[in-house]
Design a protein that fits this description.
With 278 residues, the protein is mostly helical. The protein has 11 helices and 2 strands, in the order ααααααααααββα. It is elongated and about 65 Å long.
């Protein structure tokens, strides 16, 4: 069995660990984002919604808990979209030429980069959850130990599939670009519609019809819904709105992410098959 993708995986993970500045910033930045933006916004939202009537029998969570799932999803999105940048640098430095001319199947490059990016997303999601619990995010509130472990597994499953999809997309973009500046411009342009048409920071019920439709097909929305289902529960109230998630809803979200990842994999595989070694 050819396990060449493991070489690509370990190479990228070693680079991630050895570049201390990159490692530090990638772990601390999302935690700081949750601390400053999350705490500041939660104080405002909690003050504004303090006078709203509560729904009998439905637990109410604060905005910090509500946004905690969004920060995990947002970090996974950004990390995954920029994860393919390493391929562009390898391409410009000539390392990609050596890899493509080796007996290693090109599909292993895609898989190796995808797995390393997924591992980074797991690490960041864990850091955010632990830090969030320290500053008052009420994830797994009232859960038993077994329920907490199952919920963490569910969150990581959603994070993993989501990150793979966007890493494949990022890899396809990277192998098609010539300059880091061009790729950064494309990635920045992509992040805005994915992020702002999702339910990461605010409810989508008041969106105009077009934006609401875009939200329903947005992979980020499905990721956030999955994280909230496992971390908060299937029935809760936040910002004066009741959220109810059924197992079928979560299954549809997971299958949507799987479909997205499969399509992105096929696109990345097609783009890599067209690359010429020069």
């Amino acid at each position: 069995m050819n396990t060449g993708f493991l070489t690509i995986y370990w190479r990228d993970m070693l680079r991630f660990v050895r570049f201390r500045t990159l490692l530090f910033s990638s772990l601390v930045q999302p935690a700081l984002w949750l601390a400053f933006f999350g705490v500041a916004m939660s104080n405002n939202f909690d003050r504004l919604t303090a006078t709203l009537p509560t729904i009998p029998g439905v637990p109410t969570v604060g905005y910090l808990t509500f946004i905690g799932a969004g920060v995990i999803a947002m970090t996974t999105l950004f990390t995954s979209l920029f994860g393919g940048t390493v391929l562009l640098f390898d391409k410009n430095w000539g390392l990609m030429r050596e890899t493509l001319s080796s007996p290693l199947p090109r599909i292993h490059i895609i898989i190796g980069i995808g797995l390393s990016g997924m591992t980074k997303s797991f690490i960041q999601a864990t850091v955010i959850m632990l830090f969030g619990l320290l500053i008052g995010v009420r994830f797994f509130d009232g859960y038993t130990l077994s329920q907490t472990l199952v919920s963490i597994f569910g969150i990581m499953l959603f994070v993993g599939v989501f990150s793979l999809g966007f890493l494949f997309l990022s890899g396809a973009i990277a192998i098609s670009m010539e300059s880091p500046e061009g790729m950064q411009a494309v990635i920045t342009l992509l992040t805005m519609p994915f992020f702002f048409t999702s339910n990461a920071l605010y409810p989508v019920d008041s969106f105009p019809p077009l934006l609401r439709f875009l939200s329903t097909i947005n992979p980020l929305t499905h990721l956030v819904s999955g994280i909230r289902y496992f971390a908060i529960g299937n029935n809760f109230s936040a910002i004066g709105i009741q959220y109810v998630y059924t197992p079928n809803d979560i299954l549809v979200s997971f299958l949507s992410l799987l479909t997205f990842a499969a399509i992105m994999f096929l696109i990345a595989r097609w783009r890599f098959s067209k690359v010429s070694v020069t």
